[in-house]
């Protein structure tokens, strides 16, 4: 894992690729990509400061410093995407990296706290923020213990706990999923529904962004298409389920277990059918 390190003058540099047992406490940034993102090569050749999106990096470093953290991570420039092996490792490790962060800062570029007159405040823009519609931000919401939300001016709006009801209303995700409840407590079909209304730049990423949600590791094959990627994910989840089933001491025909087996084997429930029954 490669981190960004802030010094006491506000300067930022990339660390070397650190082994797992040498990773210091760090903060992590969650955001949506925009124009002029600072990439790995920009940090290496020193041109990153000239890009508009460097403001996000400065924000994350400064906020981490205020929270007593010297190191932080930003996906745009901490991953060398030209190295296919590093990219594979990063996509399969992303959930773990977010979960291991001391704090996750959500930077909402489309939410402002600077209102003119007697406007409605930042809450309407928060509910409509693009951040809630992106695929990768699903795990960035669920994985970290502490998630704090900030406006584009860098002003704190609240955290995952204080904004829990609002986030539930926006996403439809059960509140207990934000509270550290094991994701295995939620059915495969329910977890699949969390990604339904989210979009990704590449269609395969709508599946790859679920790796951490289902605790699986898979090869990343851009160009295979969403359906093939989804089939591989379902097969992997089913395979892992069967391995665990052999270790369970109870009756494998337990109704809950059988329900999970059928959902996996048949590709999930038919939403319209069960809604009609209800």
TrEMBL record:
InterPro entries: HET (IPR010730)
Domain Heterokaryon incompatibility intervals: 26-115
Coiled coil residues, start to end: none
Highest taxon listed in the record's lineage: Eukaryota
Name of the molecule in the record: Heterokaryon incompatibility domain-containing protein
Origin species: Neurospora tetraspora
Taxonomic lineage of the native organism: Eukaryota, Fungi, Dikarya, Ascomycota, Pezizomycotina
